[in-house]
Amino acid sequence: MNSKATILVVDDEFGPRESFRMLLKDRYRVITAASGKEALAVVDTEGDEIDLILLDIRMPEEDGITVLQKIKSRNPEIEVAMVTAYASVETARNALKHGAIDYLIKPFDRDDVEEIVSRGIARRRKQRENKVTIQRLQVVNSTLQGEIEKAREDVREHFAGTVQALIAAIDAKDHYTAGHSERVASLTRYLGESCGIFDRELELLCQAAQVHDIGKIGISEAVLRKKGSLLEEEMEEMRMHPAIGAEILAPVNFLRDMIPAVLYHHERYDGTGYLQGIERDQIALYARIVAIADAIDAMGSDRPYREAMSPEQIWQSLYNGAGTQFDPELVEVALKLRLPYIQQRLTETYKQIKR
Ligand SMILES: [Fe+2]
Fold first, then answer.
1. Residue 336 alpha carbon to ligand 1 centre in Å
2. How does pLDDT run across 287-308, given as a tens digit for each residue?
């Protein structure tokens, strides 16, 4: 970039062209062109170097307004002041409409020339500065975007890692729960998608399903691993696991959204479940979904007191529980889903478990 600002003077007449050059040459780098065609060739080669163009309106081949439009379409940032011997307001307005900064009337006044030239060049300089600022901001912005994305990624990894650690903790303590959490999460994903839950909400729902039994960490092994039916006080202890789960999640900001699904997954649609005995849509939707997935998996697993149920028996139980244990609309979703892939999937999963 030259230290002096560059001015292109375009006029078909030698006289005015030279007058401008003589007037401006000491303070600016002045280039001249005798036609619109020549001027456009200079714009094409000099490009960003040009700060201001003094452009005659009346020229034989192409008139100044046409040339102005061509210049602006090539490089809208170059400032253009029109020069005319025929000072009509209409011509001037027309030029301003096409992006000229102002116009000079021939024979021109020295002061007017200096005023318009310095105004045009100042505006061009300001534009350049703005452009640099915008470019800098874009760099800062994209750096920040990258950092935000990285921070988000860290949180996601941290989140997934925490969820995995919680699952491993229950799995280690309760053999039944080993694998149960993952299967409930898979079933929950199918149900959630069929209910129109997607993206981050679906991930939240599935993660809640993964940790729905996390509260079992707080239940004694004697109760968790007991073969045969539980005594009343043992049952009482077992029934505390949703509340214990909610207490485990509560102190961690990014786990807190999973609490409703964890806390209410043993509530029943008719209000006879535990811990609070709430009913219908008082029970969070995610808890109603997890309850169905949990039940499907529990029914499909061998328990100390019974064999795993067949898929047909599971569907029958779901159907029977619609409106009492389960949200009937969600049962409908689950029953529609069973064929063909859920059933097949469940059969395969249980085959693997039994191996
Ligand atoms: Fe549970």
1. 25
2. 999 999 999 988 888 777 778 8
